[in-house]
Structure formats: structure tokens, C-alpha cells
Amino acid sequence: MDDKRIAAEEAVKYVKNGMTVGLGSGSTVDFMLHALGKRVQEGLQIQGIPSSKKTEKLAKELGIPLVDFSVTTHIDLAIDGADEIDPSLNLIKGGGGSLVREKVVDACADELIIIADSSKVVSTLGRFPLPVEVLTFGFEVTAEYIKKLGGDPVLRRKDGEVFISDNRNYILDCSFGHIDDAARLHETLVKLVGVVDTGIFADMADKVIVANKGEIELFQKKQE
Ligand SMILES: O=C[C@H](O)[C@H](O)[C@H](O)COP(=O)(O)O
């Protein structure tokens, strides 16, 4: 079986009756939604808060009850994917362009579980170009600033068209090479004019479930 699916199905075991569940985005999360939808059909009572229009659509198709932040701002558990995961459980996310809404959903969850196959585990973040969501207005200016920081920004395109996020913004994919201090890079980037947010999720994941050739590995945040 696909390792993404194996990690996703393992994470769904953590969902309990009555929970409000943050629903991440991406292909690994899609497997999670199918497993969660099955449990809902079997009687599990939960409500989900989706982190993208794509996730919202699939969750609805699978019969997962949804709410939004006008109903509650408390999330018991969020389950999300990642593009890179380092040994301190810092993440790069946003390969699918959903980083801003994912960060809002993941940040207000009591617990964040990340699901991935083993290809996402790295010793240092940065092989995957860092997605940075920026305003369309003056994005060239923002790109210049990112260039001065050594980021080599590339405006994301999909199917030949400039990619537009769910928030009607652009994504700049920025290759910084190895990122030694992810939290610091994020702090620097979010201060630039036009930057909405970055795909660095530093110190947010509580658990990471990785499937490697069918075997589950569980990484947990170190307690301070
Ligand atoms: O914007 C997309 C998200 O951050 C995804 O969670 C991430 O790109 C991982 O996606 P996938 O599970 O498809 O590899």
C-alpha cells in the first residue's frame, strides 16, 4: 500500500468522538479524508475545519460535517501534510499552495499531527524551494527583497497559468539552499512588504507520522 495512505490511516486513529478536527491539504491529507469519511459513515461524530477549498470540496463529498471559524475557533486536533520535515519537526509546507490557511488552522489546534511518506524527511530544510505567499500588488518589489536575502524567487505557475492561492495571492517559490535557522528565516521574510506568510512551520508539529516501506515511524516533539 502507498506509504502516504498508511501514514494517513494511522493518524485517523487519533480522532475521537466529539472532536473538532483541522483538515490540512494535499495528497496525503486526501487519503486521511477518505479514512476519516469512512469512520464518519460508521458513526464517528466530529466536525472538520478545512484548510483549503480543495479539502472542503472533498470533505463534503465524503460526508464529513464541516464548520468554520464563525462557529468555533477551537480545534482539538489538526492533521496535515508537509513537503519537508527536519529532525526538530520544523516543516516546509505549501507545495500545493495552501500554506496560509493551513497555518491558521494548524496554529489553533491543541495538537498537530503531520503525516508523510519517508521522502519528506530531511536532515536540513531547504532542498524543497520555500513557498512564500505574497500580495499580487507589487509582487515584483517583494521578489526583489527576497532576492537580496538570497532566495532566488520564482513566481509559481500551474498548467501554464500563474498560480492563484485560495486567498487570491501569488506564491513565490524561493530556493535558499540549506536553511540553518528556519524560525529566523521565517521572521525575516514575514517582515518584508507584500509577504502574507511563509511555508516555514517552525515548532508547530506535535507528532509526525512517517510511513517508510509500509512501516510506521512516530516522531514526537521534545518536551521542554
Ligand atoms: O500546500 C500544500 C500543503 O502544505 C501540503 O500539505 C504539502 O504540500 C504536502 O502535500 P502532499 O501530501 O501532496 O505531498
Automatic annotation (TrEMBL):
- Tell me which UniProt keywords the record has, alphabetically: Isomerase
* Residue numbers annotated as active site: 102
Q: What class of enzyme is it?
A: isomerase
Do the record's keywords include Isomerase?
yes
E.C. number, please? 5.3.1.6
Signal sequence, start to end: none
Pathway terms, separated by semicolons: Carbohydrate degradation; pentose phosphate pathway; D-ribose 5-phosphate from D-ribulose 5-phosphate (non-oxidative stage): step 1/1
> Which GO molecular function entries does the Swiss-Prot or TrEMBL record give?
ribose-5-phosphate isomerase activity
Residue sites binding substrate per the record: 25-28, 80-83, 93-96, 120
Record note on quaternary structure: Homodimer.
The cross-references to NCBIfam families, in alphabetical order and at most eight, read: PRK00702.1, rpiA
The record's function comment reads: Catalyzes the reversible conversion of ribose-5-phosphate to ribulose 5-phosphate.
Please state what the protein is called: Ribose-5-phosphate isomerase A
